[in-house]
Amino acid sequence: MLARLRAAVMAALLLLPVLLAPAGVAPAAAAEKAFQRDELADGALRLEAQIKKDAGQVTKSPDQLRRDAEAALARNDTRTALTVLGQLVAVAPDVASNWLRLSRAILQVKGADSREQNTLWERGATAAYIAYQRAGTPAEEADALVLVGRAYADRRVWRPALDALRLSLELKEVADVRARYETLRTDHGFRLIDYSVDADTASPRACFQFSEALPGPRTDLSPFVSVAGLDKPAIAADDRELCVEGLKHGERYAVTIRPGLPSTVKETLQKASEFNLYVRDRKPFVRFSGKAYVLPRTGQQGIPVVTVNTSTVNINVYRIGDRNLVDPVAGEDLERNLDRYELERIADTKGSKVWSGELAVQSPLNAEVTTAFPVTQAVGDLKPGVYVMSAETKGPSDNDYSALATQWFVVSDLGLSAMSGGDGIHVFVNSLATAQPKPQTEVRLVARNNEVLAVRKTDADGHAVFEAGLTRGEGGAAPVMIVGVNDNGRDYGFLSLKAPAFDLSDRGVKGRAAPAGLDAFVVTERGVYRTGETVHVTALLRDGLGVAAAGVPLTLVFERPDGVEHRRAVVADQGLGGRAYDLPIVSTAPTGTWRLKAYTDPKRPPVGETTFMVEDYVPDRIEFDLSTKATGIAKGTPVEIAVDGRFLYGAPASNLELSGEVTLKEAKERAGFPGYQFGSVDDEAEQDAESSRITLDDLPATDDKGRAVVPVTLEKLPETSRPLEAQVVVRMAETGGRAVERKITLPVVPEGPMIGVKPLFSGRSLGEGETATFDVVVVAPDGQALARRGLKYELLKVDTRYQWYRADGAWSYESVKSTKRVADGTLDVAPGQPGRIAAPVEWGRYRLDVSSNDPDGPTTSISFDAGFFAEASADTPDLLEIALDKPEVKAGDTLTVSVTARAAGRVRLSVIGDRLITSVTQEVPQGTTQIRVPVGADWGTGAYVVATHLRPLDAQAKRMPGRAIGVQWLAVDRAAKTLQVSLATPQLMRPNTTLRVPVTIAGLAGGAGQAGQEARITVAAVDVGILNLTGYKPPAPDEHYLGQRRLSADLRDLYGHLIDGMQGTVGAIRTGGDGGAAELSGSPPTQPPVALFSGVVPVGPDGKAEVAFDIPAFAGTVRVMAIAWSAGKVGRANVDVTVRDPVVLTATLPRFLLTGDRSTIQLELDNVEGRAGDYRVAASVEGPAQIGGTTGPGTGPQSVRMAAKQRASLSLPISATAAGTAIVKIAVTGPENFALERTYPLAVKPATQIATRRTVRTIAKGETLSLGADLFGDLVPGTGGLAFSVGPSTALDAATLLKALDRYPFGCSEQITSRALPLLYVNEMSVEAHLALDQDADQRIRDSIDRLLARQDSSGSFGLWGVGGNDVWLDAYVTDFLTRARERGFVVPDTAFKLALERLKNYVVNAPEPGKEGARDLPYALYVLARNGEAPVGDLRYIADTKLGEFATPTAKAQIGAALAMLGDRVRAERVFAAAVQAIEPPKALEFGRPDFGSSLRDAAAVTALAAESNAAASLLPAALKGVEEARARAFYTSTQENAWMVLAARALSKSVPLSIEVAGAARKSPLYRAFRPAELATPLRVTNTGEAPVQAVVSVSGAPLVPEPAADKGFKIERTYYTLAGEKVDASKARQNQRFAVVLKITEPQPQYGRVLVVDPLPAGFEIDNPRLVSSGETGTLDWIQDSAEPEKAEFRDDRFSAAFTRNAKSPAVFTVAYVVRAVSPGRYVLPQAYVEDMYRPDRFGRTGTGTVEVSVSRQ
């Protein structure tokens, strides 16, 4: 039927993509409606846009259309009715009844098949949803919701159907609707869907699963559950499950779930459910006690077997011989449960079965019994290898494919430990029984390929070493296992080297990794830079002991924030292993975090690295500290935060405004209890956003000393069981409006005790079959551990089942979670004695719940996985307390280590630096023992003392062997390796003078007759206001080379894998077997930064040097930072120098102005040292601005009387008159001839976007065209420009095109190439310099080459924004440019160029058939290869003869033709070019999202350019040129790709088009392309046609119009809304200084399609962005009220704008938002510019807001 409905509306209904992706809310009113569905909101935008597009121009009135539709429906003419209703909603879209009519009509249509029917239901629901959102009465809303519910019910999507019908009935009661709702609710509403009985645990329970989630723990559900015989049954609810606790095995229970049980979907249980349940006895069950494999030889009963309700266990024992051991150890089998098939494979191929029989066990009903299986009795003599024992209950199995309980084991007395480091593998062997060393033990190192790499014998201390060379193998030669053999082979053990090493970070192991070779200290002189500034790098290269690596060159690689390599420089040693390097930051550099890496070998990992930021920053001028005496903050109890502020020029920050807020968030842990987790993971109130942010109102200003007290009271806390912390943020604002932010974090004191649970395994996922172990504590609100008895725990396995249903013609499902109790019990805790929980886990997801016996007491839950992937190690060594007698030692000292052992045993003390330095062992009793170790000269710069306490087995006490590890770091002779550096700088100096920095290094001078040591220094002097922005710390090479590093060795042992064979009684065995056999720049800063750098400076023989810096006009603190180094030492020093005039002038200007703005210059005069008296301030301005209301250059002087130490303020109005750069001059004079003058540049930018007005003028024979400055009359002064072209075609006006390319500021690889490619031919096209636009065109080309090559990956491919990609067309385009650049004499590195060509060759060899994808990529690749003489001629001829018709675009055909022409096949080339020209067609509709960046205009221009370059037949060019002109005439805007190819076409045709014109009196015979500024046309330019025929001239005037363009929606709609940070909508047009806003940009694309989309929001000049990279509170990710937020691929926070780039496609949501935070800073009245969004490759698709005004008023001061 639908095939007959070809009307436009039906196309809208059926051809839109299926709505699966959620999107944003629909119209603004939608936020006020109760029923919300993201997929309908998204579909509403798409449907309405499509209907409007297809309805076209409608001439009838809405009333007439309504009558026509009713008439059509009355005669059952659905086709006509839908067409008319589509026109009706197009002309009257806000009338809800129209959409209701459309929805009803759609839902009456019957689809031809299920897919079309589902589409109709979907469209009907969408139309009804639009009606609901636009309904003005409750009755209309109710009617719309009925249709929505009906459509969802027809699609079998029950929950939204029920919600829609329920809300409809709340608005209007209708009997039919009520009946339908009740029927749906009974069948598909909130209901009980299943139940289960957990009988296989010690504490059984019954659980009931529901279709919807139940209320949380704060809702009492006990009235809705009754259990016969139990007055108050214990009830627990979790998500969709309700469980009845406290049941008993072997009992029957009558359980009733009563009606009225609430849910979270506003429905209650309709009817009672009664269950007669029997809790059966536990199933017969057998398992082993844990995941371990070493059974000590002595004191053991056997291998413990745990059983339930069985008297006999079937046991099988297998042996895998020593030579086959490597596979289970290196693989994943060791310690894993195996199934029958795997066990049979062991018997058949890997080993043998050595015993089979039964084990008799006790069987008390439902209780777990542990019985020891006597291994030695059953198996006899144990041979080398590993044994595998399986166990199952006797009787038939219910599952032959499941894994059996499996115990891997060896019986051994060898306690193996391994220490793997840079010097090899150290193995220690001790007796498990006695802890004594095991000398003469044979130790083997086994590789993955089963080869024995080496064999060693242990010494008297049980120590053996495998040298480093043996441990560096890879692949099959990699070592995987240590094997120990003693007692003539009768004692055998092994240790895997593939298991995770111990994580000792909880014992103080920290720092950077110890270097494997050379080590570079790389540092910049500050942490943040603006574009246009210079990064000064200091790099020292040394070995692991801090000794200089002289003469070794260092390669510095700078990477941009997107990972693209920006620059690579090889820097030679500039003395004693040190060097300095400067990197200018170009104006187009992207903002964000840059990375600098240093290499000695670029093919190896970096030997050093650092980061720095590029941002539009303004230096701080004040700083302050926050402090408090409080250790925590409790609800309702005030806490005082002390503020102490100062100006950086030394004066107190007096009388300044404070603001701030408190953010409450979950704390990662509680102080004093590292690793413990508190509270419930799934706490329903965890996202209580209303209480998470508290504004601190009415804060006091600072007093005369710059101090204040900020009171903080938490009146309300989020209702959560998790620990909280309060982050107090305080901002101090200068009088000029800019603020500095500091924060302090306090733990929130809980209202009661909390239970802490600490997993004793690292990571979140355990291996299958391992034992999950936890420690449990109870902590009081004051942080003290408490004693508690009877804590309850239960370990639940979380299972997810899926209920399948059919919807939208396809199967879908909803998940139903249930829990199964696998272990439970009680435990006691006490201070210093945590409770311990241990339970084996199989594959699955688990949750551990621990609670007090008080129903209202605390609860803690922890979730973890088992068997998914074993990222965790279940083995965490016990903690051994050790202490050192001194933190630093030197050679010859004796180090005393105090060890506190909990039991007698043996301690091995290892000193580990870059290797194992020394090791001593000593017997220790219980308690504290001191062990003394002599310090050797080979201890390096620092070392870890690792103490391992081995506790022997105690058979009498039934205590297994154990080990505990303690770790301490100590420095070694640091003073002898450190240079003592002093800086003799003044504490105070004046600006505009020279700062001399005398540097003295002690200890360099030699003795009598000896030369002193050489040394070098670098010195930097940087404004502290810049350093504070990033928290920059002065460089510390001594900490880098001599400070604590990460432990260099990995520690492993088998003590965590011991089987406790002392459990249980010995069971009787019965044998049944036999024994087996064996881009955008910001505004310039108002003052240049103070960041000065000396470079490398040699130090004299006397240890002295001097560095001088010229300090500019500046007031603040300069931090002088020195780095010093000699051949074997490093050092540093830093000192602060205050720079100020006696009277300090501080000026606060807006970062920029827009034309028409009226702003304020805030001047502060601080009489810090000057005489009291009258001071005169005079202000003037040069350039496009004026101060005051005068039209002159300035205002009259103002007089200010100031006492000593007094501060005064002045405000000067300033307004912008034109675009350009204004220079503001402030002069201050006062008593005793005091005088100072400061100048401040101020950028003035147009308030409107640059627009271009293009006019085609015909110049008749003899006619003269005059071009004068009057053309710029409607443009903002200072922004105008004129491009003038007289050439072969009006479409190819090269001057305009080049100007457009130059203006486009964004920097993906295509745009970089499109901008640079035409510049190769600029001078060839015209000798006038005006055409080049940039005087440094060649440098622009070289920079473009560098930037593009930085995006090339190892395969030769180029990324669009980052390194590498998979876009062959882009690869060919970039390589085309590189080829042409080489032809023009530019340097392109051979390696990179050959790599690019290889990439194209490889693609050509493996390219798909042309017909599959339209073959856009292959022709371009062949063309570029042909241009380089490397194209396969045969392939080209074959394509031209047989495949040409399969190429999708004219460009592709032209590229084949050009390739053939270059290879000399002119005949085929002409034929192919003719086909390309014939394929050019004017576009019938706009084209979007072509993968080759193309369009009809680009195709026509590329065909013209390639044909002309190839000297194709002259008859082809007019037709090609006609295609360019027709496509250009239809294009309102052009992309960079189109512009680039049109310039190439203009260049190619320029020589073939004779002209005769006279320009300013000079004759010209070739095309003219020139650009002019207004000043150049003060005298009009006259162009005369001296030829015989008329000529066409193109005049393009560009600039910022005085009157802004109106708001527009051309494929996109953009809305800009201001909110408070709490999410309340506000009017930002009336802002107060220091007020902060969240700016939310909402972009709607009703018909999403592929595109690279740019969103830009220019700022009003009175606002400044809180850059989240510099100010933490500027992060919008914490604002969870923002809806539909999309993560941009790239975002920039600049002085004058926010921008974000996105890649979109047809499945993208129709609505997306992006947000940022701004602050009102400068008082005044400002233009609010237009925010805009555009598709970067289809500029005709765009949206922009209107303009407005913003007024910023002075703050309360």
Automatic annotation (TrEMBL):
Signal peptide (residue range): 1-23
Sequence ranges assigned to domain Alpha-2-macroglobulin in this UniProt record: 1090-1179
Region (Disordered) location: 675-700
Single GO cellular component term: extracellular space
Annotated keywords: Signal
Keyword Signal: yes
One Pfam family hit: bMG5
CDD domains, per the entry: A2M_like
GO molecular function (one): endopeptidase inhibitor activity
SMART domains: A2M, A2M_N_2, Thiol-ester_cl
Name the UniProt record assigns to this protein: Alpha-2-macroglobulin
Organism, scientific name: Rhodoplanes elegans
